[in-house]
Amino acid sequence: MEKEQQIFGIRAIIEAIQSGASIDKVYIQKEATGDLMKELMKAMKKANINFSYVPVEKLNKLTPNNHQGAVASISPISFFDLETLTETILENGKKPLFLILDQISDARNFGAIIRTAECTGVDGIIIQKSGAAPVNGDTVKTSAGAVFNIPICKVEHIKDAIFLLQAHGIKTVAATEKTEDTLYNIDFKEAVAIIMGSEDKGINPSVLKIVDERAKLPMFGTIGSLNVSVACGAFLYEAVRQRS
């Protein structure tokens, strides 16, 4: 976490939340107590801000200042409203290509995916407010700056985003091994949103139930899966091939 991307001190973080700052995550000292800490917890839950409990040594590494048991990472970008972005793209007569990331938690994987998405003309990336990787220094570096060139939308729940896109006539395709169809059987020329799952668990089963189609990558080796950023690249470039 870069120093210019962090806030330390309980009161300062509370004020940042109340002012609407784009806070990615708050690190809270384990077993921290007190009225001010309770106020911070209440503010974070109300704003649905991702937080985790860490040892005091972690906080000391993040900042040499008096952190009072709390350090927040601030996003270097502003997030887009999904419905507004979707309507704007459709009004321009374009068949959008969206990318939905279901609980991708590694910042470097996230950055690599953003870089590929920007290179393949993705119109917007959709992530969930809780559980998703933060947009921090590692993300910016791994994305090679692409994070500043592509709209990223934060939503309360991935399923709500899928329902919204489907209501606008956008097909949702889940990248999962739980199907017999490969990505080469999918029509990516129409308006579509590709859904990629987390590094360890894949796409949430409740999300798989509501998608329009499922697709997998053909695998011929002894290892059963690819890194999620590599798999994402394969799906996006198949969409590019078809749309070209």
Automatic annotation (TrEMBL):
It comes from the Bacteria. Keywords: Methyltransferase, Transferase. Residues 6-80 form the RNA 2-O ribose methyltransferase substrate binding domain. It holds the Pfam family SpoU_methylase. This is 23S rRNA (Guanosine(2251)-2'-O)-methyltransferase RlmB.
